[in-house]
Design goal:
The structure is a single chain. The chain is built from 7 helices and 7 strands; from the N terminus they run E-H-E-H-E-H-E-H-E-H-E-H-E-H. The chain is α/β, with parallel strands linked by helices and 180 residues long. It has one domain: Leucine-rich repeat, LRR (right-handed beta-alpha superhelix), CATH 3.80.10. The longest helix is centred in the middle third of the chain and has 15 residues. The chain starts with a strand and ends in an 11-residue tail after the last helix.
Length: 180
């Protein structure tokens, strides 16, 4: 069973004695949501950050030992990139092997795409790692049509892709490598 929602929704689900979920996705829409993540038991696989969450979100989740597999930033724009980079910076370390970015409905311009690739290549993708960073985006996104580095790949975000994440996280073929 997969579970997706705000921390309050996930906590309410776990308080009624239901079976623990295999995969947890958390939607963060406020500072309070970020702080409530400390009450969640077990790993968090996906985190969806709405623009209102603080830049310190990634540092906080790292501090409470949450290792994120996929960071979601819906409706990302060029002027959101510095905010996003600060959030993901703590999870782009040796402790968490190359988490993915999910960018549904991104509104990045050519300059924003260039900045995204350059910053990820220079600061977040280890030249020593054989693992590529994956960016999931919609087919019309400029990300799909721009050249990437050899350490970054773009994959079309689709229902099939999302279903593959489930099998990866439930043990059939894990690409989400958490170090606890």
């Amino acid at each position: 069973m997969d579970l997706y929602g705000t921390p309050d929704q996930i906590l309410a689900h776990s308080n009624i004695g239901k079976r623990a979920p295999c995969c947890v996705g958390v939607r963060l829409a406020s500072l309070r949501d970020v702080e409530r993540c400390s009450e969640l038991m077990g790993p968090i696989d996906d985190v969806c950050c709405l623009r209102v969450v603080p830049r310190s979100t990634g540092r906080y989740l790292d501090m409470i030992k949450k290792k994120i597999c996929r960071w979601h930033f819906p409706d990302l724009r060029d002027n959101d990139l510095d905010w996003m980079f600060e959030i993901i910076s703590c999870s782009m370390t040796n402790h968490n092997s190359c988490p993915s970015l999910v960018l549904p409905r991104d509104n990045l311009t050519h300059d924003g795409v260039k900045q995204l690739y350059e910053t990820l290549s220079k600061s977040y993708v280890s030249p020593m790692s054989s693992q590529k960073m994956t960016i999931y985006c919609e087919p019309h996104s400029m990300l799909m049509w721009s050249p990437t580095s050899e350490k970054i790949k773009c994959v079309e975000l689709s229902t099939i892709t999302i279903l593959q994440w489930k099998s990866e996280l439930t043990g059939n073929r894990s690409t989400c490598q958490r170090m606890v």
